[in-house]
Amino acid sequence: MTPITEVEGRRLALSNLDKVLHPATGTTKGELLHYYATTAAAMLPHLRDRAVSFLRYPDGPDGQLFFTKNPPPGTPAWVTTAPVPRSEDPRARQPVIQDLASLVWAANLVVEFHTHQWRMETPAVADRLVLDLDPGPPATIVECCGVALWLRERLAADGLTAYAKTSGAKGLHLLVPLEPTPSERVSAYARALAVEAEAELPAHVVHRMAKALRRGKVFVDHSQNAAAKTTATPYTLRAQPRPTVSAPVTWDEVEETADFGDPERLVLLMDDIAPRLERYGDLLGPLNDPDAAGSLP
C-alpha cells in the first residue's frame, strides 16, 4: 500500500520509501524525503518564485536519468507553474516550488532541482550571476578553489560579492547577488570574466567547453547565465553514488582546500547539512537579500 501523508493541508502519496537510491551508502528514498523536509527552511527561499527543471533519477544514479522542464504528468493542480522564455515553445511552462508541500511532491519523484537565475515575475531579468567551475581530469575541486579565489577578488574589484557552493558533483559554483539585470547583459559580463580569467591564469583556466582544451584545467562555464539555462539549486541532492549535496561553503573552507590539496574536504553529504545549518545558518542567504545585491559595471 502506498502511504498517504498530509503536508500543509495537501494529501500526498509517497511511494517506495525503502528503495535504495544512493548505493554507496544505502540511502533510501524515505531518508531522501526526510532530508528535504528538514532542510526546507533553508532551501525554499532559493526555489521560491523560480521556474524549476528536474533531473529525475527514480532508480538511483545507475538507472535511467532524464531531464524534464515541463510539469510531469500527474502534477497536482495546486503546484504553481510559470511561463518561461524558450525559443522552441513560446507557450512553455515549468513548475515553481513555492512551499513545503510542493517540495515534498517533487522530491517524491526523485529529482535534482535546477533553477533559473531570474524570478517568474521578471523572466530573463536575472537577480544573480553564476559561474560553474568544472575541473577537467586530472584537475579536481582543489584546482577549482584556486580559480574561485582569483574570481572572488576580480568580482570584488567590480564591487560584487561572490558566494561559493559545491556543485555536489566535481566542481564549485560561484554565485553573485545582483540588482535585476537583463540576462543577456549578465551573460556578456560573465563571458568576459571567464575570458579574462583564462588570460590571467592560462595554465589553469579555459573558458571554452571543448573537452580537448580542458584536460587538467578548470572550465569557467559562464553559459548558465543565459535566460533558458538552469543551475543546481542550493541544497539539492545530486544523482551520485553517495548522497552528495550542492551546498554552500565558507571562503575559509575554499582556501583550506586549495592549500591542503584534498578534494574530499569539500564533499558534503546529506547528513552533513543539518549540522552546518545549525553552525552557519544559510551561507547563501544574501542571495535573497535585495540590500546585498550589486550592480554590473
TrEMBL record:
Its EC number is 6.5.1.1. Gene3D superfamilies: DNA primase, PRIM domain. Residues 28-282 form the DNA ligase D polymerase domain. The keyword Lipid biosynthesis does not apply. It comes from the Bacteria. GO terms for molecular function: DNA ligase (ATP) activity. Keywords: Ligase. It holds the Pfam family LigD_Prim-Pol. InterPro entries: LigD_pol_dom, MtLigD_Pol-like, NHEJ_LigD. This is Non-homologous end-joining DNA ligase. It comes from Streptomyces solicathayae. The gene is ligD.
